[in-house]
Amino acid sequence: MKISESDHKTENVIELFTGLPYDATNNRIIRLAPELDGLEILYSNDSSGEEFYSLRLLCWALKANGDVVGLVPWLNDIVSAPEISDPLNGKFEGYYDPGIDLIFNEAPMHKVIELETAAEYYEYQCDEENDTVQEIPDTIGTHAVLSEKGSNSICLAEVISWRLHNNGIVRGMLAEADKVQNTPILSGDDSLYPAQDDDKFRYFFQHQIANKIKAEDSEALAAISALVDDNQ
Prior knowledge:
This protein is of the alpha+beta class. The protein has two domains: 1-123, no CATH class; 128-232, no CATH class. The protein contains three helices and 15 strands. The strands form four sheets. The chain has a four-stranded antiparallel beta sheet with strand order 1-4-5-6. The chain has a four-stranded antiparallel beta sheet with strand order 3-2-7-8, with no helix packed on it. A four-stranded antiparallel beta sheet has the order 9-12-13-14, with no helix packed on it.
């Protein structure tokens, strides 16, 4: 969903949510809304044939240009669902509501309204690009795979939360074990640090794959090892 754009000059147009001059190329994320009803994305790739794969949505994001998109942890980052890609030519096929078996292509209106209303209500004055604008808990069991360069061993770390920075970047937050003082570990805890800033970080996985790795499923371990080797 987009804010309407003039067919003529846009230098005098102001974005509703940011108060800044309109920029059609501005994809910066300005607000997040957790997905709490189990909605998913569907995608296909060269190996899926006529079937689709599914992933649970983490949240919905409002961009500075007015777009609202779903976000998912994908390989070594968190990405907009319509922009997913992988080595097997992964392609977004739509959002999916498993409760009513419905496939759709636009963000649900109730999430659009939630994000637009929140963006108007909260007005953050940030001085630095890395200032935290918002932090939401992880609700889909995301884990990060950590591995030393050149090592054959891997470690799984639970993602506690996702932190949106003033520059629009979203980072998955892990707990540094020796700094944990309170349990359960909640969003904003002093022990949290960004997974993407860890030299050992390789990939994000949702709980289904993480549980297979924990159970030492041979196929899952082989697949993860291959991915980590490729990323060394």
